[in-house]
């Protein structure tokens, strides 16, 4: 199982960045929220979503991540240089923690869900999870847990019962202000 940091300091594609992490304790949301502002890249990164190429990393883009308390997912909202939402991306995770600097990290359980701004969803990395089970990187219990969590999230998305998506813009604005303030 891979451990991933919200700061993504090991990401060589990103040559210059700014990062902020904050704890939110409001009636709507309890947990950590981070913002990675991408100031310079060695090259843009595009992914295929359905039959469309979507740029998710380029100069001026920002990645907002939510790490809700007691949840087994991390929600990423990718915004372009104009502040327009490019996509949401949900990582199914095991444990979530916070390092000594206040930066969240998580155990990646391989399965991911991508959501377009129009609400289309795709489940990704099924083969990666299967291969991780075969290699012994995840246990059968973790494998089954990842599938249950992904299924539950897909059901919530289908029923429009995943309100965290709609907090992305407000939280991005708050963290953008924190970045500008230094």
Describe the structure.
The protein is α+β, with helices and mostly antiparallel strands. The chain has one domain (2-174): FomD-like (FomD barrel-like fold, Beta Barrel). Helices cover 24% and strands 46% of the residues. It contains three helices and ten strands. It has helices spanning 126-135, 140-158, 168-181, and strands spanning 2-5, 14-25, 30-41, 45-49, 52-57, 62-68, 73-79, 85-98, 104-115, 121-124. Strands 1, 2, 3, 6, 7, 8, 9 and 10 form an eight-stranded antiparallel beta sheet that branches. A two-stranded antiparallel sheet has the order 4-5. The longest helix has 19 residues, at 140-158.
Any descriptors?
alpha+beta; 10 strands; single chain; FomD barrel-like fold; eight-stranded antiparallel β-sheet; about 180 residues
Nutshell version of this structure?
The protein is of the alpha+beta class.
């Amino acid at each position: 199982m891979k451990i991933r940091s919200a700061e993504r300091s090991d990401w060589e594609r990103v040559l210059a960045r700014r990062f902020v992490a904050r704890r939110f304790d409001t009636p709507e949301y309890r947990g950590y929220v981070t913002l990675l502002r991408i100031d310079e890249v060695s090259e843009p990164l595009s992914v295929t979503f359905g039959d469309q190429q979507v740029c998710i990393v380029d100069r001026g883009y920002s990645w907002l991540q939510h790490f809700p308390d007691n949840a087994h997912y991390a929600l990423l909202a990718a915004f372009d240089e104009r502040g327009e939402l490019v996509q949401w991306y949900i990582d199914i995770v095991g444990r979530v923690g916070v390092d000594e600097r206040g930066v969240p990290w998580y155990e990646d359980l391989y399965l991911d869900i991508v959501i377009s701004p129009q609400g289309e969803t795709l489940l990704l990395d099924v083969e990666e999870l299967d291969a991780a089970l075969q290699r012994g990187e995840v246990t059968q219990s973790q494998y089954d847990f990842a599938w249950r969590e992904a299924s539950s999230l897909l059901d919530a998305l289908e029923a429009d019962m995943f309100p965290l998506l709609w907090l992305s813009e407000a939280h991005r604005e708050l963290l953008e202000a924190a970045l500008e303030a230094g």
